[in-house]
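Hi R.,

Here's the input for the flavin-adenine dinucleotide complex you asked about:
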Amino acid sequence: MGKPTGFMEYGRVENAAVTPLERIKNYNEFHSSLSDKERREQAARCMNCGVPFCQNGQLIGGMMSGCPLNNLIPEWGELLYRGSTELALERLLMTNPFPEFTSRVCPALCEKACICGVNDAPVTVRDNERMIIEYGFENELVKPVTGQHRTGKKIAVIGSGPAGLAAAEMLSRRGHDVTVYEREDAVGGLLMYGIPNMKLEKDVIKRRVKLMEQQGVTFKTGVNVGKDVKGAEINREYDAVILACGASKPRDIKAEGRDAQGIRFAVDYLKDSTKTLMAGGKPDEAKGKNVIVIGGGDTGNDCVGTAIRQGCKSVTQLEMMPKLPDERAANNPFPEWPKVCKTDYGQEEAAAVFGHDPRLYQTTVKEFIKDDKGRLKAVKTISLDFSNGKMTEVAGSEKTLPCELVLIAAGFLGCEEYVAEAFGTKLTQRGKLDTDSHRLGGKLFCAGDAHIGQSLVVRAIREGLDCAKEADEFLLGYTPL
Ligand SMILES: Cc1cc2nc3c(=O)[nH]c(=O)nc-3n(C[C@H](O)[C@H](O)[C@H](O)COP(=O)(O)OP(=O)(O)OC[C@H]3O[C@@H](n4cnc5c(N)ncnc54)[C@H](O)[C@@H]3O)c2cc1C
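And here is the predicted structure with flavin-adenine dinucleotide in place:
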């Protein structure tokens, strides 16, 4: 244990954020880091408890608690406190191939399960992780793993999101020849064309892809497997195939007027915004418009933050469910994931610009109203009541909100059928690839959201690692992965 009294001496200090009104002027990441001394104090807050739930990654009450990657958090916390950042990096990289992603976008399941958080504020695990990995990059300590025995085995990974990247990274470290197919023009999956730049700058992904290429991974972008190339062709060429194609089929909203111009799925909108930005342009689809985001979750929040940066006239976020409590309820004890109301960066920004939280709870869309040219001009909403244990519309509660752009962020229905069909495999009723393990049969494997449903980056990485292990064992009869 680094400093036995650290948690009593030092309070939690998070990386400072640029103020909402300032940061909405651009799409840059907006957190700065602490000084080395301050970072060591934050690391000293780790109590190195007997039962470190933070690194436990277990499902409790159907929700993940602690780090799914089993990051050795107390160990690298102590090393960080002692100033041995290089050793902390070694420990971090033992379990997590991409800490630069998780330390930026993870909702920090570890911190919610930190024992220090039972009576006080939890350790700043995610910020500590970010400092360690960025120290590694700044000091050129993060290197491709090369020079290993080549196995001569060829593996195709379909999809370059965090699951596909994690599988590719581990299998190429093992000496297999890995080719990653990606239908988009850039590698990264939702890291690239879902999560906005202010949460994850795209150079962070490019930096990692470069290292993977140096390690021997081949990336083929702009190839839609199942359309541009047949599954049978891939099967013929490779010794193992991993489907890591995500769960990107969006849930639609069925309401009158759905065919109005000006209604888009959230990920399409976010992708266009990032593409414009990356091409050096200024995304402006929401400029001057009243925007309604349907869906109160994280994707919806990303749409709110993006629409504000594009100069929207107003932004409202509709959430069907009631507002969650501000504190843990009695039936949601530690170390379960806390079901509490979270105000994310986009909602903070909306409050700063428009003077109020953009969320309307227990509200859904009744009708999309068009003008005579078929363009969206307003949305009729209705309130929902849950008091009888089921959801009912509240008669007479309709409201009409002016609106020229609707962004649907109502969740995802799973994997796209054509990818499964291309390899002669099936989806479950919930749109997932149908297997209890990672092996779908023969040489076919799967990982990530395509396997478990839309989830988190950290879980997708875990999936990629576990799948790599199974595929390696299949290819060579044993695995040290
Ligand atoms: C807007 C948004 C914001 C999010 N924010 C966060 C966040 O802040 N933190 C967090 O932890 N999680 C977040 N998530 C969830 C997280 O991004 C996903 O759980 C994670 O990316 C899943 O990884 P994956 O590799 O399984 O799939 P994906 O990232 O979806 O990648 C799948 C890739 O496969 C490609 N592909 C599909 N079919 C084919 C084909 N036939 N041929 C070739 N390529 C194909 C796709 O183009 C895609 O690039 C967010 C999700 C969304 C939608």
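One thing worth noting: Residues 457-476 form the longest helix (20 residues).

Cheers,
M.
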